[in-house]
Amino acid sequence: MTRKLKYLVCLLACLSVFLFWDQSLNAEALGFPECPEENVHSVSETADYYETVEDAAAFLRQQMVERKTSVTIPFRASAVPDQSLLDDIIDAALEHTGRPCEGDYIAFHVSSLNGQMSGSFDGITAAMELTYTIEYYSTEEQESEVNGEVAVTLVYLNLTEEKNDYIKIKTIYDYICDNIRYDYEHLDDPEYYTQFTAYGACVNGTAVCQGYALLMYRMMLEVGVDCRIISGRGSGEPHAWNIVGIDGKYYNLDVTWDEGTADHRFFLKSNDDFPDHVRDEVYSSDGFTQAYPMGETDFESAARY
After folding, report:
1. Which is it for the CA torsion 116, 142, 196, 270, positive or negative?
2. Strand 126-136 vs strand 237-246: parallel, antiparallel, or unpaired?
3. Closest CA to 169 of 297, 299, 260
């Protein structure tokens, strides 16, 4: 079986949020439920209405973390809002927060997201209801299992606060490479959603690249190492991998391609030494690359630790 075959079904790992209107919007996005409370960005659920994109997004984000499938947001403005308000709230809800159960963990766990906006304007105030309908790749019960498995695994790996970031990254990378296997069984079954999830990777022990990248993202943030999921093309096929931050720079990781290998070819690599990987446009934009500056050369642990 060639490596290239691994990515035939990874199109779903390369989701980007897009919206269109006709009283509704469609977007391929993401989600996740029960997460330890200290890792959740909380916002009041008792508000009569929201007046800013930031507050509405925080509410939506929390509902997605809790795996709600229908979310209604009361929103008021001094004028009838543009329909792009729905887009703006989703974009803000999916922003990278550094919390393990938010950001990319939401953004690569939702199979579909639909929204509608309705309301009235009395000449002074627009009173709106924004309603989102969300479908997820994993269930609330599955994510509860992920919470437990991740916690137990991190205790087993003994990644205490005293351990430096390189040790944390290497230990988790080795663990995933050694214990997760590519889900060839469901390559031709895109409706078998578990292959795209952290649950598939960490509970079942099998996943495609999306599941590998999600588990890496989740575990990195749990131990305090910044991490992002990158979607794009691997050997010309849809693919997903990670970048992690260490010593002020970011480096590429592809745990899917290093799965089961002793010599990790795709570990802490610069862009120049990371062949056959092409990022989606959003991850190669000036804004993203400035926020996540890449190391000019591979990370050399021996010189620093």
Report:
1. positive
2. unpaired
3. 299
Closest of 15, 217, 255, 254 to residue 99, by C-alpha: 217
**pLDDT tens digits for range 153-207:** 999 999 998 999 999 999 999 999 999 999 999 988 999 999 999 999 999 999 9
- Please, are residues 27 and 18 in contact by the beta-carbon 8 Å criterion? yes
Amino acid letter for position 252: N
Same domain, 205 and 152: yes
pLDDT tens across 21-57, in order? 233 333 233 233 346 554 444 445 546 899 999 999 9
pLDDT at residue 187 in the model: 87
* Residue 121 and residue 258 in one domain: no
Cα gap 301→285, rounded to integer Å: 29
H-type alpha helices, 48-103: 53-65, 84-93
- Does 4 reside within a domain? no
Burial 131-165 (b: 16+ CB within 10 A, else e): ebebebbbeeebbebbbebbeebbeebebeeeeeb
Residues 242, 232: Cα–Cα separation, whole Å: 11
Contact yes or no for 108/193 (Cβ under 8 A)? no
CATH of the domain at 192: 3.10.620
φ/ψ (deg, to 5) at 245:
-100, 130
Domain encompassing residue 267: 143-303
Claim to verify: residue 187 and residue 127 sit in the same structural domain: no
Is the Cα torsion angle 103, 215, 113, 290 positive or negative in sign? positive
Strand partners, 118: 129
Within a domain: residue 236?
Answer: yes
Average pLDDT over the chain, rounded to an integer: 87
